[in-house]
Amino acid sequence: MNVLVTGANGQLGSEIKYLVKNNLTSNIKHLTFFFTDKDKLDITKKEEIEKFVKEKDIDLIINCAAYTAVDKAEEEKELSDLINHQAVKYLANISKENDITLIHISTDYVFDGKNYKPYKEDYKTNPQGIYGLTKLKGEEAFINSGARGIIIRTSWVYSTFGHNFVKTMLRLKDRSELNVVFDQVGTPTYARDLAKAILEIIDKNYEKLNNFKAEIFHFSNEGICSWYDFAKAIFDIKSIDIKINPIETKDYPTPAKRPYYSVLNKNKIKKEFNIEIPYWRESLKKMLSFEV
Q1: Which of 25, 77, 211, 269 has its CB 3.0 to 4.6 Å from that of 217, i.e. a possible disulfide?
Q2: Which ranges carry the RmlD-like substrate binding domain (predicted)?
C-alpha cells in the first residue's frame, strides 16, 4: 500500500517520518511512504497532485500541510485560503476520483472558544479569524467531495521539530521573567502522540477507516491547562529558574482573536479506534528529554 504524506517537514509530518524511518510504531512494514513538502509536491496545483498520485499509485493520503501562521493569516487571506481550503478541495476531489482514502488534519480554531465544556465533533462551529475560517472551509470541501476518510481536529501542537510554543519558551529561558496568558485554556498536543495514533488507525483499523466519509474526530493529549500552566510546566521539567507572570489576553493583543476555551472531547476517537491518549504533562516530559 502506498501512502502520501503532505507537509512532511512540518511538526506532524516530521513526527510521522521519524516514527516510520525508525520503526517506532505499529506494524507498517507493508506500507510504502512518500514524504513530500512544497518543493516535491505543490498541493495548491491540482495537476501536480493528479500526476503524483497516478505515478506513485497512491492508496492513502495523510494531509499534514497547512497554513498555520494564525496572525499572519489575517493579512494573507488568499494564501491561507489557497492552502487550507482550495488545496484540501483538490486533495479530496482527487481522492474521490482515484479511490484514495484521505486523512486530513484540522484545528480547534473552527470553534469560537466560548464553550464551558469540552467540544464534541458535532458542536456548532464558529471560527473567529481567517485561519479558523479557512480550515473550516477545508473540512467542508472534504465533506462535500464524497471522498472516504477522516478529519482529525487537534490543538496546541508542539514537537521536537518545527516552531512551537515549547521551543519559544526555551529560547527565552535566559530572561529574568516572562509574561504568559493565563485566561486561555486548552490542551497541548505532542505531535508524536498524534502521529502514533494516525499510524495505529491505519494499521489496526484500515477497513473501518475506509467505511467513513469525512468523519470528524478530535485528538489532543488528556487534561487541561492554560498557556501560563504550560509555560510553568516546561520550565519546571527542565529545572529552569525563571519568573512567569500570569497576564490576561487583553494585556497581550494579537491580530487574530484566540479562543478562550478550546478543550476537545476525545471520547469518540478513543472508542472508535481503541486508542489510549497520554496526559499532556507526561508527553511534555518525553518531548523535553528527546534529542533528534
Answers
A1: 269
A2: 1-288
Identify whether 18 is a catalytic site residue. no
Angle subtended at Cα 80 by Cα 222 and Cα 254, rounded to the nearest 5 degrees: 65
Residue listed under C-alpha cell 478513543: 270
Please tell me which residue in 90, 131, 190, 261 is annotated as part of the active site.
131
Residue with cell 516510520: 20
Give per-residue pLDDT as tens, 59-70. 999 999 999 999
- Give the 3-state secondary structure of 86-114: HHHHHHHHHHHHCCCEEEEEEEHHHCCCC
Element (H, E) at 125: none
Between CA 279 and CA 262 the distance in angstroms is 16
Exposed, middle or buried by CB within 10 Å (0-12, 13-18, 19+), for 241?
exposed
Catalogue the E-assigned strands of 167-237.
177-181, 185-186, 189-190, 215-218, 225-226
Say how far apart CA 110 and CA 5 lie, in whole Å: 23
Q: What span, in angstroms and rounded, lies between the C-alpha atoms of 21 and 57?
A: 21
Q: Residue type for 48, please?
A: E
Furthest CA-CA distance within the chain: 57
Q: Tell me the per-residue pLDDT of 53-108, one tens digit each, with 9 for 90 and over.
A: 999 999 999 999 999 999 999 999 999 999 999 999 999 999 999 999 999 999 99
264 DSSP β-pair partners: 119
Cβ–Cβ under 8 Å, residues 159 and 287:
yes
Q: How far apart are the first and last CA of the chain?
A: 28
215: three-class secondary structure by DSSP: strand
DSSP designation for 214 = S
Strand bridging mode 189-190 / 157-158: parallel
Question: Is this prediction's pTM over 0.90?
Answer: yes
